[in-house]
Amino acid sequence: MSTGTLYAPRPVPGHDRELGAAGRSVRSRRRRRQLRWNLVVAGLALLVAALFLLSLCIGERTYSIAEVVQVIAGQHVPGASFGVGVLRLPRACGAVLAGAAFGVVGTCFQVLLRNTLASPDIIGVTAGANTAAVAGIILFGLSGLALTGLAVAGGLVTAVAIALLAWQGSGATSRLILVGIAAASMFDAATLWIMTRGSQWDIQAASRWLTGSLNGLSWASLAPLIGALLVGLPLVGLMSRQLGNLQLGDDVASGLGVRVSLTRAAIMLIGVVVLAAATATTGPIAFVSLLCGPIALNLVGAGHSSLLPAALVGAAMVLASDFIAAHLLLRSYPVGVVTGILGGLYLIVLLIRMGRRTRGSA
Amino acid sequence: MLAAACVLSVAVGSLSVPPGQVWQALSDPSVHTIAAEAVRSRVPRTVLGLLVGAALACSGAIMQGLTRNPLADPGILGINAGAAVAIVIAMAYIGLTSAAQYIWFALAGAGLAAGAVWAIGTGGRGHATPLRLALAGAVLAAVLTSFTQALLLPHAQLLQSFRSWQAGGIDGARFTQIEQVLPFFVIGAAMAACSGPTLNALALGDEIATGLGTHVGRARLFLAVAAVLLAATSTALAGPIGFVGLIVPHAVRAMVGADYRWVLAWCVVVGPLLLLVADVVGRVITRPADVQVGILTAIIGAPVFIGLLRTRRLGEL
Questions:
Q1: Does the predicted TM-score (pTM) go above 0.90?
Q2: Is A118 in CB contact (< 8 Å) with chain B?
Q3: Is residue B148 a part of any domain in this protein?
C-alpha cells in the first residue's frame, strides 16, 4: 500500500515555504502534485493487479501464472479451469469490486460529513442494509437479486430516515452522525434478535452479515454489485469536482457554483445504493469504508480527488486481507476478521497521533 | 411501581402464574408444582435485573456528569464492549468459567476502553464535544465487537451461547454467580453514593469546582473508576446492555431536577424498573421464546437518544 509514497516523498510543511521563497512558481508545484497523484494511482493499480494474480495462483493447489493467464483468456486448462475459473476468479473479482465500492462510498461520506470517523458503517447505513438482508434470509427465505434489492431498500430507507430525523436547519451534519450512531445500535440489536430466532441453517447463511465474507461467491451473485458499480461509479466520478468543493465548506462551495443540498443528496443516494449492493454481496467487511479515505488522502496529499485512489486502496485492502485470512493464519477466517484488526490498528495510530499533536501544542 | 415490576417479573413468562400462587411459591418452600418452580427460577433473574439496572443507570449518570455530556452511556462509549471482549478472551483462551474469575478481565477491558475513548474523544485537550466522544465510542465498540467475533469463530460450540450473551440478557441468572460478584456491586454502589456532591461541583465547571475545594483531577479519576466498575460488573453478569445508562438519568433529571445526589438515588429505583419491564416485555412478545433485554433496551433507547438530539440545540449538547 505504501508503494506510492516511495516514489513521491511527502512534502514537509516548512519545505514548501522554502520553495516559495526560492521563487518556484505555483504551476510547478501543481505539476508535482499531479505527478505524485499519477504515481500513487499507478502504484496502487499495480499493487491491486499483483494481489489479484497472487490470490488466483495460490490456494489449496498452486497454479503457475501462465496457467492462470490461460484460464482468464478463456482457454481450457485441466484442473485449473475449475479451480481458478470457477472458484477463485469470482472470489478475487468480488474482493476487488466490494473493496472499491466500500472505499469510494466511505470516502464520499467522510467528505460530505467532514469527519474522518463518519463512515457509513459507523453512522447506521450499513446496519440498516444488514438488518434488511438478515430479515430477508431468515424471515422470508430470499436470495440473489431479491435479497440485494431488499438490502438496498433497507440502506436507502435508513439513510433517508436518519437524514430526516437529523434535518433541523443548522448543524445538521453533526446531528446526522449522532442520529446515525443511535440508529446503528438499534439496527444491530434488531439484527441480533432476528438471528437468535433463525434456525441453525439460516444462521449459517446469515452470519456473514456480522463479519463479512467472500466465501462461496459466484458470477451470478456478483451480478447485482457489478450493475450497481457500473452505474454508480461513473456518476460519482462526474461529481468529484463538486465533492472537492464541498470540502471547503457549504458557503464557499455554493460561492463556487455548487448546488450544495442537491449535490449532497445525489452523492449520498448513489453511495447508499452502491454500498448496499456491495453489502448484500459480501456482507459488511468491517472498516474498509472507514480506512480507505484517510489512507488515500495520506498517499495523494490534499487538493486532489482521492476517490480513485480510495477505490484502489479498498480493492487492495480486501484482496490482501482475504489472502491473509484464508491462507496465512492458523485456520481460515472470513475476511472481515482481518479488516477488523486493521481497524483496531488504525485507532491506535489515531491515538498516537493525537498524543503527539497535544505534546506539540503544550 | 418497582415492587409491581418485581412481581410481574417473577409471575410472567412462557408460563404465567397468578399473583396468589406466586406468593404461595415464595413463602412456602414445600410447594412443588411446576408453577412454583417456575416462579422460584425467576427470582434470581429478577434480583439480577435489579442489580444490573441500578448499576447501569448510576454508571450512566456518573458518566454524563463526568464528561458533562448528555449522550454518555456505557454502551455508546464502548465500555461495555471493552468488558465483553475481555471476558470472551478469558473464557475462550484461558478457560475461565465463573463470573468471579473473569470479572477482573471485565474490569481491565472496560477500563482500557474507557481510557481509549477518552483519549480519542478529547484528543488530549481535556474536554470533548459530545459528537467526538460518541463517535470515538462507536468506532471503538465496532472494533471491539469485530475482535470478539474473530475470537469466537474458532470456537463453534461457544458461538451459540455467546450470541445470546452478546445480545445482553438477564436470563440464566443464578444466585451463586450473583453472590460471587456482589462485592463489586457493593463497592461500586458505595462509590456512586459518595459521588453526588462531587458531580454537582463538577457540573459548575472546572474553575468553580476547584474554587469550591474539589481536586478536579482526583475527582474525575474517582468518578471514572466508579462508573467503569459498575458497568464492567453488569457486563460480566448480564452481557453488554446499552441505553439503560442513557435513558434513566435523563428521565430522572426530568422528574427531580439536576441535583446529582437525587439523580443518583432515583437512578437506583428507575434503572431496575426499566430493565425489569423491558425484560418482561421481552418474555411476552415472542412467547415462548425470550427476547434478550439488551435488544429491547436498544430498540427502546435509540429513539429516545434521537429524541434528545432533536429537542436540544447542538450548542447545548
A1: no
A2: yes
A3: yes
